[in-house]
Amino acid sequence: MGTPARVRYARVEDAAEMARVNVRSWRETYRGVMADRVLDDPGLPAARERFWTAMLSDERYRANRVAVAERDGDVIGIAMAGPSQSSGSQWGTHLYVLYVVAAEHGTGTGAALLDTVVGPDESAALWVADPNPRAQAFYRKHGFVADGTVNVEEGVREIRMVRISSGRGSRS
């Protein structure tokens, strides 16, 4: 693989590269799960770049933690966690995004990104596509368990996975 991946907090100038990784990861991971019209939409990269620009520049999202993983100057992974939108939940943090390009699966990059945006002892929740056995196994390895909650959005079935920390830690 060459040099080790470097994980750092994202900056607004990373938005275009983050969008590239986001779209590439969706196409690699969700072909056959997500509608082709979504994955092949020529406007998808620009829409994702607008999304990431907003996440990194809009005051409304300043509580989110957003990170990128780079290898040899190229962004190879992205992650974002922030306050849970579920009132009364046992977890204070929600992992909204964690994508690593397929060529980097199994290198530890995903784990480094996860630990950057969600502390290893922090209670958190996430939604993961089902089926997506590789991602589900990754999250189980990091202490997440399916809680039985299912959501279907735009034809994609997702399951919620949660990790309840005994210390119920959170980051500021």
TrEMBL record:
Ranges of residues in domain N-acetyltransferase: 5-163
Organism superkingdom: Bacteria
This protein's UniProt keywords: Acyltransferase, Transferase
A GO term, aspect molecular function: acyltransferase activity, transferring groups other than amino-acyl groups
PANTHER family hit by this protein: ACETYLTRANSFERASE, AMINOALKYLPHOSPHONATE N-ACETYLTRANSFERASE-RELATED-RELATED
Record-given protein name: GCN5 family acetyltransferase
Native source species: Pseudarthrobacter sulfonivorans
